[in-house]
C-alpha cells in the first residue's frame, strides 16, 4: 500500500510540474527575427502586433469581432453598420472613435477601395457600396484595413506607428524594433513584457542566432522546411496561406489577350514545385486551394508549350520585364519563369527595380474558411474590385474561371508559412494568415 501511495504521489508531482512548465508566465523578452520589412505587406509582423482591425479571423478562418463589437447589413448588402467596441484606447491614451477609424480607413484605402464611402455616425461606422458587398466583414480583417491613429489629440501625426493592439512601439534603432506590452489592451495584457524584433535578417543568420540562443522565433521559408526538419528545429507550419502568382499587365506589350494566354500556358509549375520549393505546398492553377473549394483540379496546371506557341501565333513581342521584391527562392523562381517564357518565344529580363514591369512575381494572401470571402480578399489583393460572388460551388467556379480567363493573374503554387521556435517558447501558434500570435506566447524562464 505504501508503495502504491508513493507511486501515486510521484505521478501527481509529475503532473503538477508538467502543468507548471506549460502554464503561461508573465514577463520576459521574446527575440524574433524576420527577413523582410515588419511594416509592409500581408506578412508585416509589426503591423499585426501593433494594429487591429474592425474584425479579425480566428485560427479556423472564421470572422470574429475585434474593434467592432457587432455589425449588420441592410439595403440588400449595399449598406453596412459596424458598432465600435466601447472603452478602447490607442497606445497614447487617445480614445478609439468612429471618426478616428474613418480617417484611418480613408488613408489606407485611397484607391481600389471595396466600398464607395464610409462615414462616422456616433460610435458606428457606416459603409455604403454601389454593388452589394456581402463579404465586407471578412475583407475588413485584412492587413490593409488595420486601424491606425492618424492624428493625435494635438492634431499632429504621431511620431511612431500607433494602434490599439497588444504591443506598442517602445524604440526603433536601425533594423531593431522594440515592442512593449500594452498594459491597457482591451483583450488583456500579453504575457511577455516586450518583443525585440530584428528585421531584414537573412534566414541563414536567423538560424545561427537561434542555435546560440540569440533568437527565440525565426522564419522557415517553405523551400527550407525539409532542411529545418533535418536540422531538428521545432517548426510550426500553417496550411497554405499564400498564393504565389505571376501578375501579367493587360496594357502595352501584353494588351493582346492571346499573348497573356500564351504566358499562362508556358509556365512550368512542376519545376518550381519540385526543384525550387522542394515539394512544399501544392501546385495550382486556381485562385483558391482544393481544400477550400473541392474544384481546384478542374483548372489544368500542366505546362503546354505547344499551346503557348500556337497562341503566340508568330508574334514577336518586345522585351518584357519581370519584377519581384523577394530574394532567395523568389529570385530563383523569377529566373526559372523567364527561362520558361524564353522557350515560348518571349524575351524576359528579371529586373527588381523596374518602374513599370510587364510581369510581377508576388504572393497573395489566402485566408478565411468562407471560399467566397477568401476569393474576394484575393481579388482585392490583386488590385481588382471584389465583385458579388455567389456562395455555391458553381458560382464560385464561374467567378474564378471568368477572372482567370483574362490571364492577368497566373496562379503557380499554394504555399504555407512556417516558423522555428526555441526551447523556452511556450504557447506559440499561428493565426489565420500564418502570422504568429505572439500576444498568447510566453517564455518559460520569465520570473
Q: Could you please describe the fold and organization of this structure?
A:
- The chain is α+β, with helices and mostly antiparallel strands and 447 residues long.
- The model is unreliable at 5-20 (pLDDT under 50).
- The protein has helices spanning 2-22, 45-50, 98-108, 136-139, 203-211, 225-230, 257-266, 269-276, 290-293, 305-312, 329-343, 371-381, 393-404, and strands at residues 29-33, 55-57, 63-65, 68-74, 79-84, 117-121, 124-128, 167-173, 176-181, 194-198, 217-219, 234-237, 242-248, 282-283, 320-323, 348-350, 359-365, 409-415, 418-421, 425-426, 442-443.
- A hairpin with a 2-residue loop joins strand 6 (117-121) and strand 7.
- It has 13 helices and 21 strands.
- It has 3 domains: 29-35 and 165-238 and 417-443, D-Maltodextrin-Binding Protein, domain 2 (3-Layer(aba) Sandwich); 52-145, Dipeptide-binding Protein, domain 1, CATH 3.90.76; 242-415, Dipeptide-binding Protein, Domain 3 (Dipeptide-binding Protein, domain 3).
- It is 28% helix and 22% strand.
- The protein is globular.
- Strands 14-18-13-17-15-16 form a 6-stranded mixed sheet, sandwiched between helices. It has a 4-stranded mixed sheet with strand order 1-10-9-8. Strands 4-5-7-6 form a 4-stranded antiparallel sheet, covered by helices on one side.
